[in-house]
Design a protein that fits this description.
With 201 residues, the chain is of the alpha/beta class. It is built from 7 helices and 4 strands. The chain has helices spanning 14-21, 28-78, 88-98, 114-119, 123-131, 149-165, 184-190; strands at 102-103, 138-144, 171-178, 196-200. Strand 3 (171-178), helix 7 and strand 4 (196-200) form a beta-alpha-beta unit.
């Protein structure tokens, strides 16, 4: 890229205007100078193009850095939030109230739950969620016959997460099945029957 671009051709020169107004033809020497001016003009056009590219890239870089700074400022501001001053024990207690109804179905493309959402906020919240198996022991599973295979795989993956992270906690499970009499997920839940505290069908 061209740094500090300076054009070579003075497009407002008086001599050029005089040539354009002259009633006589141009001499060989003058024609040679015009050819040189055209070459300089081509060089300057290339220089302008390179300078425009350089400045546009600079603008993109500056905008990117500005966005990074805004994100950094927002992160710093979040550290001043009162919730960051809560002890882990109080934070976990709050989580138990927020996560009493995990629903492993919201729409076919995005299964989710309160506990999973909380555990994805930051490393501290994730550690708190992982350390409290009670948060993962209460959930609702919804299965429709119209679910595609990809969604069912996602749902099974999330169900495995809840079963694993609930450790040895007694489970409260609400199962909704529409258009199905049985399903592999139901058999998976049945294998954890020794841990059932409450099952709702």
């Amino acid at each position: 890229m061209v740094e500090n671009f300076r054009p070579h051709l003075n497009i407002g020169s008086q001599s050029l205007q005089e040539h354009l107004r002259s009633p006589y033809g141009l001499s060989e020497n003058q024609l040679s100078k015009v050819a040189q001016f055209i070459k300089l003009a081509d060089d300057d056009l290339n220089g302008y193009d390179a300078e425009i590219i350089r400045l546009e890239a600079k603008v993109v870089y500056l905008k990117s850095e500005r966005e990074r700074l805004l994100d950094h400022k927002a992160t710093l501001s979040s550290l001043l939030s009162p919730i960051h001053r809560l002890p882990n024990e109080i934070l976990t207690r709050i989580f138990t109230f927020a996560c009493d109804k995990n629903h492993l179905y919201r729409n076919p493309s995005s299964p989710s739950s309160f506990t999973l959402n909380l555990s994805a906020v930051c490393s501290r919240w994730r550690d708190s969620c992982l350390s409290c198996s009670e948060l993962w022991a209460n959930f609702k599973v919804t299965i429709y016959s119209g679910f595609n295979e990809r969604y069912l795989c996602q749902l099974e993956y999330i169900l495995d997460i809840f079963l694993e992270r609930s450790k040895q906690q007694l489970l409260t499970i609400h199962i909704e099945m529409f258009g199905l009499m049985e399903h592999p997920l139901l058999r998976k839940l049945t294998r954890s029957s020794t841990r059932w505290r409450e099952i709702i069908l």
